[in-house]
Amino acid sequence: MIILNLSPMIRNFKITSFLKNMLFRILRLAGILAVIYVSMVFYLALTERRNAFPRAIYHKEANEAIQNKVKQLSCSLEDGTILNGFSLGNETDPTLLYYPEADEDAAQFLAQLDSLPGVSVVTFNYRGSAQNKGTPSEETFAQDAAQIAECATQVNGQSPRALVGRGMGAIAAINQQSNHEQIILIDPILDIADAIHQKYGFLYPKFLVRTNFKADSDKLKNAQKNTTVVSDKKQFESRTYLEYSKLGNAKLILRNGESLQKLLFSALKSSLFQ
């Protein structure tokens, strides 16, 4: 009578079955994660324009805070769109033109600044922002920035002596410099594609970013000696230092709770007031 020892066979079968089940679960999980990843990439691709050119919500408190300190301005664009804006200070003084962050109501900057003696501060909200009509896009932003500079010139008949840009407003400030204007960049973005990739990381690789809005390389180089970079908000610190590294001869200032008025005074050269 032959007795077979089936224990090793049963054990091997159980191990093989376990490994197959484990492999199936891993593959299923990988498939689910792949579908989720592709879906997220697809969603980010669909919403890229909105992420690249967000709209500023009208800031009621800031507008109320400045209503007795500013003069209301308007800037008529070539396509008929009208941008609302403000001037703060004596309009006969040298003009400082402020380009806000895309999702910032320009009134917020003026509410923080309060005043800047000896300087006429001019700023406008972008297309589609803070009750302005229109849809912001890569195609319109550069053109609008140039026309905003022209509207600022009309305030006192002289071109702005200083250009200040926050976030992606820094691109507008750099690209509009033409005559050795002083430039101040607050938590700057110099390339929208880089900013989008830094925000979403591997979820949205840079090669998938279609927006190609960035500071002109020649103007970026020419502006270095007249540029001050301001690190304001802690959340943008790493980005600010990265962008600052692209401006070899620029000056870096850390806000560290300093008032916006005092910070701008320290950043502006005395030649602005001559």
Explain what you see.
The chain has an 8-stranded mixed beta sheet with strand order 1-2-4-3-5-6-7-8, with helices on both faces. The protein is of the alpha/beta class and 274 residues long. 36% of the residues are buried. It has 10 helices and 8 strands. The model has no long low-confidence stretch (mean pLDDT 89). It has 2 domains: 7-46; 50-273, Rossmann fold. Helix 4 links the parallel strand 3 (95-99) and strand 4 (120-124). Helix content is 43%, strand content 16%.
CATH architectural designation of the largest domain: 3-Layer(aba) Sandwich
CATH topology of the largest domain: Rossmann fold
- Report how far apart the termini are: 115 Å
Largest sheet: 8 strands, mixed
- For the record, the count of structural domains works out to 2
CATH superfamily of the largest domain: Alpha/Beta hydrolase fold, catalytic domain
Radius of gyration: 27 Å
Order of helices and strands: HHHEEEHEHEHEHHEHEH
Percent of residues in helical segments? 40-55%
SS elements, strand count: 8
Short description:
The chain is of the alpha/beta class. The chain has 2 domains: 7-46; 50-273, Rossmann fold, CATH 3.40.50.
Based on the model shown, name its key terms.
single chain; 274 residues; alpha/beta; Rossmann fold; 2 domains; eight-stranded mixed β-sheet; 8 strands; 43% helix
